Amino acid sequence: MTALHRRAALLAAGGLLARPALAQGWRPAQPVRCVIGAAAGGTLDIHARAAAPVLAERMGQPAVMENSGGAAGRIASALVGRAAPDGQTLLVASGDGIIISDILYGPTQGRLRSRLRPVTMTIIAAQLLVTHPRSGIRSVQDYLARARSSNGVTLGVPGYGGIAHLISEMVNRGLGDMRVTHVPYRGGGPATVDLLAGQIDAMIITLPAVTEHVRQGRLIPLAVSTLQRDAAMQDVPTIAESLLPGFDAPSTQGVLVPEATPEPIVEAWAQAWRAALRTEAVTRRLTDLGFVITATTPSEFGASLDTTEARFAEVISAAGIKAEDA
Predict the structure, then answer these.
(1) Domain enclosing residue 182, as ranges
(2) How many domains does the chain have?
(3) Domain stop point among 242, 266, 283
(4) Neighbouring residues of 25: CB distance < 8 A, sequence distance ≥ 6
(5) What is the pLDDT of residues 279-319, one digit of tens each?
(6) Are 65 and 121 members of one domain?
(7) 8 and 121 belong to one structural domain
(8) Angle at CA 156, nearest 5°, toward 215 and 292?
(9) What's the predicted TM-score (pTM) here?
């Protein structure tokens, strides 16, 4: 069992111990708007849509998925933060993305997290540095050599100021003398399309978004961002073992609602999402792609966001990353 899986198991165990019977007092009165903080085709989209049929069955109303990419999820988070706190609007977002965005942009644009209430951390996954066969980059060493050459590297990231962009900045500053041009996208889906077409040299993306492309040889995986190798790609080295010892930056994703949403509604949605993610077919599909299902309680997700903020605030400060860099 990897460190990532042990972390997920501990979170999931806490959720099981704290879990009451499904609340019977609240159900949505009409179809539910589920805003996904990225364009179609990324991991937020994949795991939310996998859970949607079970959510509809549990809650008695369809969950209408709506992709809202841009600004590393900030647009979607702000939209849901302004919605009525009635349980009819949910946000599926990167927990890391919300925190990093607040650190970089909160002082001038306002904090997003204060407008949102955690429901459940749905999954944890590694970020993957990946390229395409025609790039000529087939290993971490090739990537490093290209990034230090006069040509440099064009690197796709799902939005400036997101976890992928931050990982790239951490690697670049840790190694030094790197010529990396970041190309922002509205989500992992559009970035993958351009990488497959050879429009960019490489990208950093949440691993499950490209598992099938890697397995079919359409993309070449170079390194994962977690401290230990990912169970779905055991042959792929970590950034820690190949570039920067001790490097560890997993990605978290979850569900949030407007901050003033009442407790019974939050708990009803938390239970519904946990049940959906632990349905056998959903679990099998997501774990095969490389997702680690956590399905936490609201308080556990909130605590994780606190820890993430403390960690990345220190990383961003130490690296000297400013809002204008993002």
Answers:
(1) 127-242
(2) 2
(3) 242
(4) 264, 268
(5) 999 999 999 999 999 999 999 999 999 998 988 888 788 76
(6) yes
(7) yes
(8) 50
(9) 0.84
The CATH number of residue 222's host domain is 3.40.190.10
Q: What is the pLDDT of residues 195-245, one digit of tens each?
A: 999 999 999 999 999 999 999 999 999 999 999 999 999 999 999 999 999
One-letter amino acid at 109 equals Q
SS (H, E, C) the chain: CCHHHHHHHHHHHHHHHHCCCCCCCCCCCCCEEEEECCCCCCHHHHHHHHHHHHHHHHHCCCEEEEECCCHHHHHHHHHHHCCCCCCCEEEEEEHHHHHHHHHHHHHHHCCCHHHEEEEEEEEEECEEEEECHHHCCCCHHHHHHHHCCCCCEEEEECCCCCHHHHHHHHHHHHHCCCCEEEEECCCHHHHHHHHHCCCCCEEEEEHHHHHHHHHCCCCEEEEECCCCCCHHHCCCCEHHHHCCCCCCCCEEEEEEEECCCCHHHHHHHHHHHHHHHCCHHHHHHHHHHCCEECCCCHHHHHHHHHHHHHHHHHHHHHHCCCHHHC
Could you identify the residue written with the tokens 């009165």? 29
The DSSP bridge partners found for residue 139 are none
Residues 231 and 140 in one domain: yes
Q: Return the amino acid letter for 88.
A: Q
